[in-house]
Amino acid sequence: MDHKLFVIALRCGRLANRLVLFANFIALAEELGGTLVNFTFHSYADSFKTTRNDIYCRYPAPRKPGWLDFPPLAGPLKKTRVLYQSVRAASRLQQRFPVLGRSVTTLLEAEPDGATSLEAAELQERLGSAKVVFVYGWRFRAPSYVQRHAEKIRDYFRPLDRIDLLSRQAVERLRQDAEVVVGVHIRQGDYPTLRGGQFFFPVSRYLDWMRELARQFPGKRVSFLVCSDEPRQLSEFPGLSVGFGPGEAVSDLYALAYCDYIMGPMSTYSQWSSFYGNTPLFHITGSEVTIELDRFAVSFLAEIP
Question: What is the number of other CB atoms lying within 10 angstroms of the CB of residue 97?
Fold first, then answer.
């Protein structure tokens, strides 16, 4: 396939959604020998070593800054989202009025339901000879590509040292008195209404699951690192050794990655932690689910919450 530039042209969700989409297209770019630009990642770019100094959020990472990467210019451009809005408008205009021709650019849209496989031969054939591919939607997945290029993706998304230190320290404090540290993602926020509350569970139910899992490590001391989108209290977890994440979205995300196991509701947040840390994950899909240790598995970002 001819070399292609993939441009993610539509903002989709928050931190983890954008990481998952970005990673799947990095995997595709690696597989096909293409490159990638992602202005939609500006909201989180400053938290990562590779993207903080690259206003284009390019993959592969550039060897030197571009002419827009000077601090007095880059900061305001990120905050105003002018580059993102310009790309989005240009992609839609090109779709309606293809003045550059279909052989130069094309628009790749995800299906509204389920996952759109980037590995499918039909999809790759549909791209044809287009040199620039504008990407709309976040339901694109390429799990075998992600697995094959996992180390390059993980290296690209290394957090800043201060974030990494906070994440590691949160887990290391628990390791002083435990042989196993389990990360627990408790998501409340928007989950009472998402999919009719399918993945919303009270803290008391998480407590039951945590106790259930601890019993599966006989003779070992188990501690739990709880990361939640709402403030939590130790009194909510009686009888268990519990600590909390650093409290910020990125540092909590990477703290979960440094645990030995992760459990939580279906979410791209815990998927990313599992993938980055190569950490076995158990997704809770219903209130009656039983936690089983042998069902934990590393995520390669295939699941659609």
Answer: 8
Tokens of 227: 């990361």
Work out whether strand 58-59 and strand 35-37 pair parallel, antiparallel, or are unpaired.
antiparallel
What is the signed CA dihedral for 116, 117, 121, 123, rounded to 10 degrees? Answer: 30
For the chain, the first-to-last Cα distance in angstroms comes to 32
* Cis bond upstream, residue 60 (ω within 30): yes
**CA gap 185, 204 in Å, rounded:** 14
Domains recognised in the chain with CATH numbers: 5-156 (no CATH), 161-295 (3.40.50)
Cα–Cα distance for residue pair 273/252, rounded to 1 Å: 9
pLDDT in tens, the chain (305 residues): 568 999 999 999 999 999 999 999 999 999 999 999 999 999 999 999 999 989 999 999 998 777 677 777 777 778 888 888 888 888 888 777 776 666 678 889 998 889 999 999 999 998 888 899 999 999 999 999 999 999 999 999 999 999 999 999 999 999 999 999 999 999 877 776 666 667 789 999 999 999 999 999 999 999 999 999 999 999 999 999 999 999 999 999 999 999 999 999 999 999 999 999 999 999 999 999 999 999 999 999 999 98
Cα 70 to Cα 52, 66, 87, 177, 199, distances in angstroms = 11, 8, 20, 46, 43
The helix/strand/coil state of 58 is: strand
**Within the chain, where are the H helices?**
15-32, 71-80, 82-96, 121-126, 143-148, 150-156, 161-175, 203-214, 249-257, 268-277
